[in-house]
Structures are given as structure tokens and as C-alpha cells.
Amino acid sequence: MLDPKTRVSSLWQVLADGTNLHPLLAGWRQSTRRSDISGLSGECCGRWTPDGKYFVFDSGGQLWALREKDSLLRKVSREPMQLTSGAINYGFPIPSKDGRKLFAVAGLVRGELVRYNGKSKAIEPFLSGISAQDMAFSKDGQWVAYVSYPEGTLWRSKADGSDRLQLSFPPLYAMLPRWSPDGKQLVFFNYQTGKPTRIYLVSADGGTPQAMMPGGPQSQADPTWSPDGNSVAFGGVFSALDGIHILDLKTRQVSTLPGSDKLFSPRWSPDGRYMVGMPTDSLGLRLFDFKTEKWAVLSNTAAGYPGWSQDGKYVYFLQQEPDVGVFRVGIRDRKVEQVVSVKGFQLTGYWGMWLGLAPDDSPLLLKDTGSQEIVALEWDAP
């Protein structure tokens, strides 16, 4: 069962007559980490062994076994036992008929950072093809920040990949870092399933990330700096899409952008005049003009990961349907044009895909280089 608010799945148990519905593992939460196999956070995909003595399931990308003390209908009296560990993810366990083996999907999650070269019309490795997403460049293009995939740690380095420094550590899972206009700080949001998302600020020289609004709105995501560095706009996630908000860094006051209800994923234009947002169904882009204080439809096509061109004349986005590819839309003429098709190109990322822009506006993508296979695991029931 998936909780719509926390996005955490849990296993439930019910008697054969349909009564006594209750959580199978009430109070147990070993991991809310998202499984790269099932795509879910929490508990998932359980099966009983043929003799009914064990219930095997996956949680956090690893396999677990729960032992029944006397019978199937009695309350679980022991903690689940972890069966697998390590960098390889496992999911969808199925016991063999004799109960001596567990069949499961095993996978190693990795990606290769690539760049579309508009001159050669080729997709080529970028920064040596590191496994990273959410890449952002400083205003002068000399520095880059990125999030390692799938680990979720924030790093910064020079644009050539040298002088690397890790800026965040578990349990924080960093997403969508943005450089301050002066290049001295980075803002990002922490996404841990089952916990409120929070925006953090960290020095580009390192140090402990600090929550910007620890007691602020329930959901804080997609931070974006104003060009003058005096404000940070942000939105929400999932069921907490209550509009686009702006934090004034001088007064520490939070305001809501007029008419932004049910919009998310804000992106401030380089000149500060516009703000782009997306509706909850991700079908299109909306443009807010700070001069007129009105919203306009920028496009009605399915969009993801919007990003402004350096000159502020275009907004790039990743489209999944009907034509899979990178597109851009003009701010003045509203004309949508394809930059590159990625049909048949296997993408990956925390949400299954990601799009960024290099300083020359060339698209950056994360190519899926991971692997999955069905394995048979020998196990001796405890």
C-alpha cells in the first residue's frame, strides 16, 4: 500500500475472510530509501515460502525475511532478517518450490553523463562520463556542481573535473543544486522519502549544509536563485504542490507568487523578469511576467526539467511523449522546436531521466549503463 503523502509503501495483512486488516510490520521502518529495482520506497513485493514459515520481501533495495512463529494468522513476533547487502540492488523475491532458493531481480544502477554536440550532431561523454545528475554551472562557467548517482551526494569541482570537493553526506539525498549569483554558495533540496523535503544552503568551499527554513512550509523543493541573489524561489512535491513561494533572504519572509497554485518546478529567468513553472500533470510550461504579474501558457506539451538558455530567449525541456527528446520553446514567439531526439536512447536518473544544460546551452543527459538480471540465491532459512 502506498501512502500518497509520504510516498512510502508498506505491507499489510488481512484474514482470509477479509477482516482484521493491519500493517504487517507496524512500527518497523528499516529503510525509506527508494529501491532502484521496484522503484518504491519502504516495503514491497513480498511472497511466502511454500511451507508458510517465512515471508520474504524487499525494502531499500535489499531482501528481507520475516519468520512466523506458529501460524500464518498469528502476529509477527520477530524482527525481519536482512538477507542481502551491498551495492547491488535486489527486488521482487520469489521462493523456489522447495524453499531452498530465492529468485530475484538483481541490478547495478549506474549512469554515464553525456552531452549532445550540436556541431557534430553526436552524443558524447561529458566530464569523463561520470555517473552524475542535476549538474549546474556557476555563472562564470568556471565551476560545476553535481549529484552523484545513485548515491545522492553533492559535489563541486572546476569545470574540467579537477579540484573535487564533497559538499553533502548521508542521510541527506541532494537534488537540483543551484549556484548563487556570486558563486560562493549552493542551494539544494534534500529528498528523503517519508520526510518533509527541505532546502539547504552550503558554502562552495565546504562545511555543514544548513536548512534555510527548518520550520517553514511542509514541502520545499526545486530552489532557484533570483539574479540579484537576494531571494530564492521554490515549489513543492507530489501532494504538497501548494504553489511557488519566494524566500526573501534579507527579511526571511516567504511570499507566494500570485496565481501559482498547483504549479511547481520554478526557474527564474537570467534577467529576473520571468519565472517558469509547471502544472501538476507536467503537461506544459507556464510563464509568469513580474512586470504584468500575469501568467501565460508557454507550451502545452509534456515537459520535464525546464532550464533557461544563457541569453534568456529560450526554455529547454525534456519531453517523453509523443516525441521523446530535448526541446526548446521561444519566449517571444512561443515556437516549440526539437533540439535532439532521444528515441531509443535509454535514460536514467532518480526519476528515470534528467536534463541539464552546459554553459553553451548544449543538452546534458544521463545515459543508463546499469544492468539487471534474474538471479537464484541459495539460502539457509534461519
Q: Could you please describe the fold and organization of this structure?
A:
With 382 residues, this protein is mostly beta strands. The protein folds into two domains: 8-108, no CATH class; 111-368, 6 Propeller (Neuraminidase), CATH 2.120.10.30. The chain has no helices and 34 strands. The strands form nine sheets. It has a five-stranded mixed beta sheet, with no helix packed on it. Strands 11-10-33-32 form a four-stranded antiparallel beta sheet, with no helix packed on it. Strand 28 (304-308) and strand 29 (314-319) form a beta hairpin.
Give a topology summary:
Elements: E1 8-9, E2 12-13, E3 22-23, E4 41-48, E5 54-59, E6 62-67, E7 81-82, E8 89-95, E9 101-108, E10 111-117, E11 122-125, E12 132-137, E13 143-148, E14 154-158, E15 165-166, E16 174-179, E17 185-190, E18 198-203, E19 210-211, E20 221-225, E21 231-235, E22 245-248, E23 254-256, E24 263-268, E25 274-279, E26 283-289, E27 294-302, E28 304-308, E29 314-319, E30 325-330, E31 336-341, E32 355-357, E33 363-368, E34 371-378
Parallel strand pairs: 1-4
Antiparallel strand pairs: 2-3, 4-5, 5-6, 6-7, 8-9, 9-34, 10-11, 10-33, 12-13, 13-14, 14-15, 16-17, 17-18, 18-19, 20-21, 21-22, 22-23, 24-25, 25-26, 26-27, 28-29, 29-30, 30-31, 32-33
User: How many strands?
Assistant: 34
Low-confidence stretches: none
Round the mean pLDDT to the nearest integer and report it: 90
Strand content: over 45%
Q: C-alpha Rg, in Å?
A: 23 Å
CATH topology term of the largest domain: Neuraminidase
Oligomer: single chain
User: CATH-wise, what's the superfamily of the largest domain?
Assistant: TolB, C-terminal domain
Number of helices: 0
Q: Strand order within the widest sheet? A: 1-4-5-6-7
Q: In terms of structural class, how would the helical and strand content be classed? A: mainly beta
What is the C-level CATH assignment of the largest domain? Mainly Beta
The amount of helix comes to: under 10%
Let me know the largest β-sheet.
5 strands, mixed
Instruction: Supply the CATH architecture of the largest domain.
Output: 6 Propeller
Report how far apart the termini are. Answer: 28 Å
How many domains comprise the coordinates? 2
Tertiary shape: globular
